[in-house]
Design brief:
Pfam family, one: SnoaL_3
Helix content: 25-40%
CATH class: Alpha Beta
CATH architecture: Roll
Strand order of the largest sheet: 2-1-6-5-4-3
Strand content: 35-45%
Keywords: Signal
Protein name: SnoaL-like domain-containing protein
Number of domains: 1
Number of strands: 6
Distance between the termini: 66 Å
InterPro entries: NTF2-like_dom_sf (IPR032710), SnoaL-like (IPR037401)
Structural class: alpha+beta
Organism: Vibrio superstes NBRC 103154
Number of helices: 3
Order of helices and strands: HHEEHEEEE
């Protein structure tokens, strides 16, 4: 009888671990889709997975809605037709079965339509809070920081 209880416990732990790994991969896939859209300067598509109450803090500037984020990024991306985005390191921490934190060290380079460099390769850090809503991982809050100019 004790063996069955231990076996059931091990099975439950293994099942939870498998579900957690699957959720982590879904979060990574969602983030990677955002980066793919950002590479092509597809700003609206980049924020497809952000709800209207999305918040974004970029370089200390608070943006309190998805609409504010789109407006700011449209201005920031003026003339940009593509980006090279490299993920140096990324991590997903599951907070629950429906909430996760994505963190990444990244670099980007921005180009215009003629291939001229608009912004040379620069590092930045991303933190995104993802929540599971209606079966989709949604970007509820993003924070992007850049190193100081010292």
């Amino acid at each position: 009888m004790k063996f069955k209880s231990v076996f059931a416990l091990l099975l439950a732990v293994a099942s939870f671990s498998s579900l957690a790994n699957e959720a982590k991969q879904q979060v990574l896939d969602t983030a990677h889709t955002m980066w793919d859209n950002a590479r092509n300067a597809q700003l609206v598509r980049m924020w497809d997975n952000a709800p209207t109450d999305h918040t974004y803090f970029v370089a200390g500037l608070p943006l309190w809605s998805k609409q504010d984020t789109l407006g700011t990024f449209t201005a920031m991306f003026e003339g940009v037709t593509r980006q090279d985005i490299e993920t140096v390191r990324e991590e997903v921490t599951m907070l629950s079965d429906s909430a996760a934190v994505y963190t990444a060290d990244m670099t980007y380079t921005q180009y215009d339509a003629q291939g001229n460099v608009l912004v040379p390769t620069s590092p930045y850090a991303m933190t995104i809070v993802f929540v599971l809503r209606d079966g989709q991982w949604m970007n509820l809050h993003s924070h992007q920081s850049f190193p100081s100019a010292e």
